Amino acid sequence: REAAARGEEAALITPDRRLTRQVTAALDRWRIEPDDSAGRPLPLSPPGRLLRHIAELSGAKLTGADLLALLKHPLANTGSDARGDHLRHTRDLELDVLREGMAWVTTGALDDWAQKRPDRGAWAHWVNSIIRDLAETGTRPLAEHVNHTLALAERLAAGPEGQGSGGLWDKEAGREARRICDELVREAPHGGDFTPSDYRDLFVSVLNRGEVRDPVQPHPGVRIWGTLEARVQGVDLVILAGLNEGSWPETPPPDPWMNRKMRAEAGLLLPERRIGLSAHDFQQAIAAKSVVLSRSVRDEESQTVPSRWINRLMNLMKGMSPEGERALAEMRERGAHWLALAGALEAADPVAPAPRPSPQPPVGARPTQLSVTQITKLVRDPYAIYANKILRLRPLKPLAQTPDASLRGTILHRIMERFVAETPPEEAPEEGKVRLMALAGEELEAHAPWPAARLLWLAKLGRIADSFLMDEADRRSRATPTAFEARGRLSVDAVGFTLTGIADRIDRDEAGALYIYDYKTGEIPSKPVRERIDKQLPLEAIMAQGGAFEGLAPGPVVEAAYIGIGAKSAFERIEIDDEIITDAREGLVDLISAYQTRTQGYTARILAEKTRFDGDYDHLARFGEWDHATDPTKMEVGE
After folding, report:
1. Which range of residues forms the domain containing residue 63?
2. CA 164, CA 99: separation in Å to the nearest integer?
3. What are the Cα distances from residue 308, in Å, to 117, 247, 349, 402, 421?
4. Exposure b/e, 24-36, CB count within 10 A at least 16 = b
5. CATH number of the domain that 312 lies in?
6. Residue 553 binned pLDDT confidence (cut-offs 50, 70, 90)
7. Model pLDDT, residue 388
8. Is pLDDT of 608 > 70?
9. What letter would DSSP give residue 271?
10. With contact defined as beta carbons under 8 Å apart, do 461 and 437 qualify?
11. What are phi and psi of 502, to 5 degrees?
12. Ranges of H-type helices in 286-371
């Protein structure tokens, strides 16, 4: 940058192409476009990225992120004037379908979505045709693979209403991609049969042979050279960058076919020949008028080792007369000046940490309905309720469903609901275990499309099956399962509030008494947590006694318990009687009454000291800039 300001010519010399891209991006800070002798790799240009995506996704299961990478590509649907509509449809598809817990994209899901939005039927049909064509591949001749990739890329670029190939082959990058692909088409009939994975590797390697020159006029005095181009050119300032072992000189690639002796006998060059050429390039480059020697102390994985050229130069100067050591110290001092400038350039301005929020919205904006689990959240992290219910901010689901604890819990709940509902009277334990594992296999097959996860989760269930069935027999000896996933609504007239909830399971005995059970795949709440924070089962008992659950007549609750179906089987009853239910009802009224006053703030993470996972709204509350010892800052909002 300084050389350009002084009107001098400067060149960066390095064999590391990733480093040259980083330098190019850094120079953009001052709107300087360097003259890169190697150009830009074709796979990093828009046409190259689109072709590479299609080749890599052919024959593979398509995730939501994969589909969006294609649909949001800048060349997608450029063959007509409907690019804006295309992007809006893509956004709606992402929010309505792809972020709804879908592991792999299916054409059926898009068909269902299109039926709800008839105006987008043609667009959804076009997307489905692309998905089907990506899946329709296998071992076949190379020519068919190539023609399939190019046809699909052109159809994606043209769009559902466009003609031709859209903007795929336009501009310099498109013409270079066309040249590379035409060459591959000519040679493909001689390539034989390829599997999809082998074809992907071949196609990407062929694309890597292409280079693109940006149409932007580069700066006349700022250049980036490889070691080969630097042999025959010179400038005022030379920056030798990437001087680490493995980069300059490069580590010789291993030869799986011939050892050193065999190469020598065959008259082939030894690997050290390339190191010698690297030394020659370094020797020529360092003889320039003004030279900067640069290396990184760390890479993305570990500490780096200085290049042998650097080590040799330093050892030589240290072993010379005092003038050599003094010259080395002056070199380091000049380098420290540039390091200080770089540090100052990237240094952030001091920013005061955000306060711990405790917003106080108007009473009229506060929620008048919460679920049982949201009551627990209100006690533990009121700010999450404020963000969700008052600001109406909903966390986006991930683009691709993963086999996580949440999904496992959902599937196990389905398994237990089906098993308990379909259990015949007087079923033998051996028969029950067989039926339980069969049901589990069906549910896992339907909702967990990961073979490894299915086997692991099925094995974990098998380990606790015997213990669970023994406890289940005891539960059935006292009452009959009556309701599963029962939804309920209870009006709390004293504070004008509605409590909702879903009970996993409710049993009823012959006397009409009720037994409430909640399945837990994770840790069962401890007694202190149940007393201070988690009132789920007492609140569900209040709802059951009040007849709040659909299709369930009211009755006295004589038992409430957690059924552990996680790593180990467990059955833990909680104390439940009229006094506890009355205390829970009064506590609910007091809690809601407190939050119906303007002075009550929704403090972030008020009782979340022991929470071992991040909340959905911790980033919004700026948690980390404050901790649990920080006093909340109350602020009236919404005026």
Report:
1. 41-212
2. 32
3. 65, 11, 39, 46, 73
4. beebeeeeeebbb
5. 3.40.50.300
6. very high
7. 96
8. no
9. T
10. yes
11. -125, 115
12. 308-318, 322-346
Which positions ≥6 away from 48 have C-beta within 8 Å? 41, 42, 173, 177, 207, 210, 212
Which amino acid makes up residue 560? Answer: A
Judge whether 180 lies within some domain. Answer: yes
pLDDT in tens, 356-368: 999 999 999 999 9
Are residues 181 and 222 both part of a single domain? Answer: no
Same domain, 7 and 95: no
Verify that 202 and 284 share a domain, yes or no.
no
Q: 291, 318, 345 — which closes off a domain?
A: 345
Whether residue 51 sits in one domain with residue 174: yes
Token readout for 451 is 């073979």
CA 45 centroid distance within chain: 24
**Are 192 and 124 members of one domain?**
yes
- Indicate whether 156 belongs to any domain: yes
b/e map 520-530, b = 16+ CB within 10 Å: bbeebbeeeeb
CA atoms of 55 and 199, how far apart (whole Å): 8
Task: State the DSSP code for 188.
Answer: G
Report residue 446 as tokens.
């339907």
CB 99 within 8 A of CB 398: yes
The share of the chain scoring above pLDDT 70, in percent, equals: 99
Going through 334-470 in order, the beta strands assigned E by DSSP cover: 356-360, 369-371
Identity of the residue numbered 104:
W
Report pTM. Answer: 0.81
CA 46 to chain centroid, in Å, comes to: 23
Q: Is residue 388 part of a domain?
A: no
DSSP states of 80-110: SS-HHHHHHHHHHHIIIIITSS-SS--HHHH
Per the listing, tokens 């190191």 go with 275
Cβ(176)–Cβ(210) below 8 Å: yes
- With respect to residue 289, please indicate whether it lies within any of the assigned structural domains: yes
- Per-residue confidence band for 509, with pLDDT thresholds at 50, 70 and 90: very high
Residues 96 and 134 in one domain: yes
User: Among the residues of 165-252, which ranges form H helices?
Assistant: 171-187, 196-207
| 171 Rama class: left (phi>0) / alpha (psi -120 to 50) / beta | left
Nearest to 11 by CA among 195, 234, 188, 203: 234
**Same domain for 193 and 64:** yes
Residue 350 CB: number of other CB atoms within 10 A? 5
Please answer whether residues 208 and 41 qualify as being in contact, where contact means their C-beta atoms are separated by less than 8 angstroms: yes
Residues in the chain: 639
pLDDT digits (tens, 9 = 90+) for 43-57: 989 999 999 999 999
pLDDT over 90 for what percent of the chain?
53
pLDDT digits 0-9 by tens, 391-431: 999 988 888 788 989 899 999 999 999 999 998 877 888 89
Say how far apart CA 523 and CA 611 lie, in whole Å. Answer: 12
Residue 493, token pair as written in the block? 């007239």
Is there a contact between 128 and 110 (Cβ–Cβ < 8 Å)?
yes
Q: Where is the domain boundary, 310, 345, 380? A: 345
Q: Amino acid identity of 601?
A: G
Q: Rounded distance, CA 565 to CA 552, Å?
A: 25
pLDDT in tens, 189-201: 988 889 988 999 9
246 and 309 share one domain = yes
Pairing of strands 480-492, 140-141: unpaired
Say if CB 196 and CB 138 are below 8 A apart: yes
Domain count, the chain: 2
